[in-house]
Amino acid sequence: MADVLTELKSYVSITNGKVQVQNAAAVRGLMDALIYEAVFNPDEEKKKALQRLVIEIAKQMGAVPSSIQSLYEEMGKNYPGFTVPAMNIRGLTYDTSRAIFRKALEKNASAMLFEIARSEIGYTKQRPLEYTAVVVAAAVREGYTGPVFMQGDHFQLVRRHYLSDPDAEVTYIKGLIKEAIDAEFYNIDIDSSTLVDLDKPTLKEQQRPNYETAAELTAYIRSLEPAGVTVSVGGEIGEIGGKNSTPEELRAYLDGFKETLNSGKGVSKLSVQTGTAHGGVVLPDGTLAKVKIDFDTLRQMSDAARKEYGLSGAVQHGASTLPDEAFHTFPETGTSEVHLATGFQNIMYDSPALPASFRDEIYSYLKTECAKDRKEGQTDEQFFYSTRKKGFGTLKKKWWDLPESVKSPIMKEIEDKFDLLFRELRVAGSRDIVNKTVKPVIVEKTVPDNILG
Question: Quick check: pTM over 0.70?
Answer without folding.
Answer: yes
